[in-house]
Amino acid sequence: MNLLYLTIIVPLLSFLILVCFGRQIRSINVMLIGICTIFVIGLITIFSCVDFITNTVPDMTLVYTRNLWTWFSVGDLEVPFSLTLDGLSLTFLVLISFFGLLIYFFAACYLKSKEDIYNFYAYSNLLITSMLTVVLVDNLFVMLLGWEGVSISTYLLIGIYYKQARNSYAAVKAFVMMHLTDIFLIIGIFLLYQTLETLKISTLLIKAQNDLAIDSDIIFWITIMLFLGAMSKSALFPMHTWFTETTLAPMPAVALLQSSTVILAGVYLVLRLSNLFLMSSDTLYIMLLFASLTVIFASSIALVQNDIKRIVTYINLTQISYLFYAFSTQNWSLSLNCLINYSVTSTLLILATAILVKQCRGERDISKLGGLLKSNPVLYIIFLIIMLSLSAFPLISSSFYIKGDIILGLMAQGNLLVGTISLLGILLSSLSILRLIFSVFHHKPNKNNQFVKIKKLNYLPIFILVIFTTALFIYYPVPTQGILPIAALDTQGQLPFRLLLAAVTLLSLVIAYIFYAYPNSEVHEILNTPMVKSLVKLCKSNWRFDFILNNIFVKPYIYLANWLKKDPFAIWDNWVMWGIKKINSYIVSLENGQIRWYLVSMVIGSIIILMLLIFI
């Protein structure tokens, strides 16, 4: 664990080398630099795991700290740059290095353009550096460095094709949306320091439990600010817009942004400060509300999209909400297992989609595709396995047990409406992926379709991920004892609920077969009713969210900017100067050289002064 600092130094140096000299280096060498970088991080992670296991004492929490230097010191505030490794940060270190290695390897097989290869590996190294900074530091102020680095890296990866105006706009939009909630995070950090006089995470958690009352006003404002700060990185509604803009990036970059890095930042913050969030039931309830809105929003939109990348993106956005459902049930260990399951499933879905789009020569409209089953049955089986995971298929998929426990926990707390929404999210996500499968693999092929042959090496990361979606890997032995609060799961009614969850999954299969496999005239009549058409139109327009955002924020801002561009204060100054000149010209005109006019002026002035003395 003495080499822990290299996990940040190595990708940072790799980023600087590629930025300075990457355009002069051959593509194969850029790939080698990128893959070797993440491989070195993986090796250090393995050594850290071995060291951690060998030094762990039963019923004790092992925490390794490495002080590097003091960043700055102002009065009593000292901000050291030190790295801390415990069970939680080690788990995230393993996730980042494991998924990073798979995605880097996939990118080497997938990307062909020299410019794309250079941009992807350079910016991804910066993203990995920023994420590891967030995960390994033990000071909230230092964490802001990595937090901002994640935002910058997201901006760069989304804007890889910056020469297209749409992509540049999307990158700027993502950057702005992320920084809107960063303001709340900074406010939360200031409140923590003002209240507890420390920003060291391990210390402030202890002081908060000792000095702050549960459900007090200050603990509510601290936790709600921290949650709002984590919302953008976690892509919860209404701060989800950057997440949907990632579809403009290359597919390996999409996998990094949606599955294994940026999303982990917001989730890590909530998990790391879980003892703090546990003290505010109101914040947990608000968390539940935003997660439910995200499920309804994302799952309904995914169901009507035709763009494959947008279908996948909204399906992943739906799955993120179940992490916050787990937080709201206060079952933090279950939420960590849900995070691992989400990372596996979403990465697998994106990589499989990348191969699908590439095989179809970049065509992403499912209405123009079909007949892929005969040309690529392997990819068809992969999508079926993904469908089993997303639909929480009984006994086979690990998500059946993980999501089942999360929804059962919601029901046990009396949140029947939220539990129903979570079941609806599973149903709609299943229908979305089944619609994609039927359209692309089963429907009649388009005569113009020409499929590209995909190298077998592209499937290696996918085959590895497929194993982890099965019921063989349900609950991972994560070393979080003494770090995350342990919540006992109410097992009463577990069997009936599992049967209900299985019934929802089977219902999705029946509905998908009726509506998408071989739709008859009655189905077409239902789909052509005015109400259904209106709902489909609303969902296709993303609930008019971008339209509302544009009219409430963008247009008033542009109007104000154009108004200020004309410098209204200068116009006001011109009017003042015009008035002064007019008064001055009138006064000057009184100097006419006539003695009687001066005498009259003196008499009038004397009368005015006398009146003021009498009446005031």
TrEMBL record:
This is NADH-quinone oxidoreductase subunit L. The chain crosses the membrane at residues 6-23, 30-53, 90-111, 118-137, 143-162, 174-193, 218-236, 248-271, 283-304, 311-327, 339-357, 378-396, 416-438, 459-478, 498-518, 597-615. PANTHER family: NADH-UBIQUINONE OXIDOREDUCTASE CHAIN 5. It is found in: Endomembrane system; Membrane. Pfam families: Proton_antipo_M, Proton_antipo_N. The keyword Transmembrane applies. Its main location: membrane. Keywords: Membrane, Transmembrane, Transmembrane helix. GO terms for biological process: ATP synthesis coupled electron transport; electron transport coupled proton transport. Residues 138-428 form the NADH:quinone oxidoreductase/Mrp antiporter transmembrane domain. Residues 71-121 form the NADH-Ubiquinone oxidoreductase (complex I) chain 5 N-terminal domain. The lineage of its organism: Bacteria, Pseudomonadati, Pseudomonadota, Gammaproteobacteria, Orbales. It is a multi-pass membrane protein. GO terms for cellular component: endomembrane system; membrane. GO terms for molecular function: NADH dehydrogenase (ubiquinone) activity; NADH dehydrogenase activity.
